[in-house]
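Q: Protein A?
A:
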Amino acid sequence: MTFTASLRGLSAILAALLAVGLCARGGVAEEEDFRIENKIYVDDEKEPRIRSTTIFHEGVVYDYLADPPEVTVFDGHHGRFVLLDLTRRVKTELTTERVVDFSRRLKEWTQEQSDPFLRFLAAPEFEEQYDESTRELSLTSPWMTYRLTTVDSESEGISRSYREFSDWYCRLNTFLNPGARPPFARMVVNAALAERRQLPREVHLSLSPKEGLLAKRLTVRSEHLVIRQLVESDRKRVAQTDQFMAMYATVDFEEYQRKMAN
């Protein structure tokens, strides 16, 4: 869930698994510092396809994708994402207004389609169940199923900060990846977690569309380790990222995308 930069070179359905709504210029709820280590596996693969680290520090979220080396910084207080290409030493910036406007237009377009799976993705509805003994949350539908093993967030601030970032991150990945599935299903999952003040420890997503443009069966599993206190190396990493944001040359978004694609 919620956590790598733009998932270059993969099906953007992975972004729906990660993946923490607010209005376009929302800020992180309460400034509690913590870190999440993330691994994502596709189908029966034994090695993770994606590894990333997400650091929540003083109301800003720093998401570090291992390969390719890219950082996404979510600064909700200033309504922006900053994307940093660590290889080419360039950056670009996107406003949350631009990202949320894209999501709005995508929802409107999806609702107008004849494809039943697309219409489901525009306004997804799930049957929700929670097993207290196993701490497993499930959201099921004929099209897709989420099964999550959960842990308590231990504070309202962590729960709200995680949900906000995850919601925005889902929107961002749909924006960054043309042809990606809409973010709204994962946002339903985020809301269910927030209602229980829980975080995901493991997430299984099964897709089973039977027809339509996006008819492809896929199973994705993610693991998330929540560390509730930052260590000195985390703070140094954040400080270095802040330096990179000040130093790197700024390019427009389209040029940044071309560089990453190459």
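Q: Protein B?
A:
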Amino acid sequence: MPILPPQAPDPMAVEFERMFCEQLADGMTQDNEDQAEEQGKQLDADKPDEAIDEESDNESGSIIVGGASKDNPDPFMLANITFNNPIDLSLQPPHLQAIYALVTWLWLQFHLPQVACQVTLAILACILFFLSPMIQIPLVTLASANRILSLNVPIHILPVCPTCKEVYPDSNSTEKDCQVCQSPLFKLDLTWCGKLQKNRIPLLCYPYLSISEQLSSIFSVPGVKDLLDQWRTKS
């Protein structure tokens, strides 16, 4: 049986594949930059707060335990707060808005795993490219989709004493035991299989978002500032 010579690759198919790889590489580069920025914000948030003046604590009537104030540092005074400016959705193509909204809705409503969401984004990017090579393809990570839809709200998790309900700052310098009742604040450092935990997990968590961060997200909505200034036109 004669052996047919290998067929030469289609130049158009090769060019399409090159263009798709370039677009996908650009998307992955943007995703990596977004993840690095989020990690940098998390490292800044994990830094211990500056010590509050002891005399001002005593004047404010805070409780003193063992010679030090239990609210020093203040758990609700977060250091190095960064605000995420929302992205103007009007600058995004409608097909990308629909894709990001679909994937994030599946993640929030039905708890679709993050890896499944990212596989969905990658598959949709491949389908769109092969249907129209010149179309803009979506980013392929869930973090980027949340950032574009302004859903990456920085919720801070503060540890709470399960016994006396005292709140402590989310910092690596926080003691393992409560300063008031000496109850443990965090779960065991080892997992069920004997491995060391990367991050300390509080026994009782308090999701916290500061007033300044809430106001920043509210004022970023188009039309809110004008609505708040309408009182100036009233007699």
